[in-house]
Amino acid sequence: MLYERWRQIARENRGEMALHDLASGERWTFAQLATAAEQGDVARPVAHPQGREFVLTLLRAWRDGVVVCPLEAGQTPPVLDALSPGCIHLKTTSATTGAPRVVAFTAEQLAADAENIVATMGLRRDWPNLGVISLAHSYGFSNLILPLLLHGIPLVLVDAPLPEAVRQAADGLPGITLPAVPALWRAWHAAGAIPRNVRLAISAGAPLSLALEQAVFAASGLKIHNFYGSSECGGIAYDADAAPRTDESCVGAPMKNVRVEIAEDGCLEVLSGAVGETYWPENHANLNGGRFRTSDLAEVRDGRIFWRGRAGDQINVAGRKVSPDIIERALLGHPGVAACLVFGAPSADRERGETVVACVAAKKPMTGETLRQFLLGTLPAWQVPREWMFVDSLEADERGKISRAEWRRRFLATRK
After folding, report:
1. Mean pLDDT calculated for residue range 350-367
2. How many CB atoms lie within 10 A of CB 35?
3. The pLDDT value given to residue 26
4. Do 178 and 44 contact (CB within 8 A), yes or no?
5. Is 186 helix (H, G, I), strand (E, B) or coil?
6. Which of 93-102, 131-140, 246-255, 372-381 has the lowest mean pLDDT?
7. Pick the CATH number of 2-310 from 1.20.910.10, 1.10.10.10, 3.40.50.12780, 3.40.190.10
8. How much is the pLDDT for 322?
9. Residues 6+ apart with CB under 8 A from 99
10. Angle between helices 2-12 and 107-121 (to 10 degrees)
11. Which residue, among 277, 267, 263, has the nearest Cα to 231 in the 3D structure?
């Protein structure tokens, strides 16, 4: 199914530019890419698209009916046994809330995700995608690779997302679509390097702060569109408005062909043709029959989804639960806080359950007491952190995520 769709796209656009790898200088028209895909062998029983040969490895796997499992650079391939019938693609989750899992997809489910993204975001063939994010991650695969191969949206690959490299990559193109993560948008904005010919700006992979979205809009008139999704189901919601949001917890409206519901425990459930088939090697009730039950607490109001934190991240303080997201938003209101992360840790007082810990990257030296007094102006006392950990920076991974579990582990190590 996927290879036949690709061949149709290649015929329709045969003379048009399909792929440009800036690092190597190589260019392929759709016809040239189709010719190259017909040549060469592919590993069996599972192909692992990676690096410079990513697109061709994928196309050859589709050609020969080989299961695909994209890999990040240096990532160890999962050991695979028998898969569910019809599953042809495997995604590794980002492990935000636990151990990484493998999610299996059918061809129809991959195609549905691409259709939803192109239709909802309005991706266009005259606005090539600038590829600065990982092609192996669900976000990059669905926003860059599938639109190229199944919808004819050209792709320009950038070797590194450095400000000057991105600016040079965009030169000479009348308009581009630029999908990225908040950390990259922040770096480009600080360097004054956001290309002027960006026609569609997208941010996903981690929460997009209201301050950053509004700052970019004020400086250049460019609206960064927040995109919310998951490896298990592809795109969930998209903020298509032309003006910046006024509520940071709003992640947008459900994607076209996607329906959402709120479960009894407050978690968001996603129903669409793009929901994955199953987890591997063990299935789970949270992913079954076209329905994915996320661990995200959410509210649906006026046709939009509002994110209220993660169920697994909630902190139990003396029987009362609080989402770290609420405390983080309040902390970021202090002008001296550059970044922060809040989590729960075992309390010395067993009756309290957990104690609230704030890990802070400050713009200048400050104390926990200074921030505690600041927070008492907006939060009830029981929600204010009791322990503080000041760091130079909070590093995000290649997917733009900051691991709450990793920083909690580091904090607990300092207690020993």
Report:
1. 86
2. 13
3. 95
4. no
5. helix
6. 93-102
7. 3.40.50.12780
8. 85
9. none
10. 40
11. 277
Mean pLDDT of 367-373: 96
- Using CA atoms, how far apart are residues 261 and 286, in angstroms rounded to an integer? 13
Most confidently predicted of 66-75, 87-96, 334-343: 334-343
Q: Tokens at residue 153, please?
A: 């949206």
CA distances from 31 to 10, 14, 19, 53, 168 (A): 6, 4, 11, 17, 26
In the three-class reduction of DSSP (H, G, I as helix; E, B as strand; rest coil), residue 242 is classed as: coil
- Residues with Cβ within 8 Å of residue 60, at least 6 apart in sequence: 37, 40, 41, 42, 47, 66
- pLDDT 10s digits, 390-402: 999 887 665 566 7
Per DSSP, what are the bridge partners of residue 322? 315
pTM of the model: 0.82
CATH classification code of 314-415: 3.30.300.30
How does DSSP classify residue 51? G
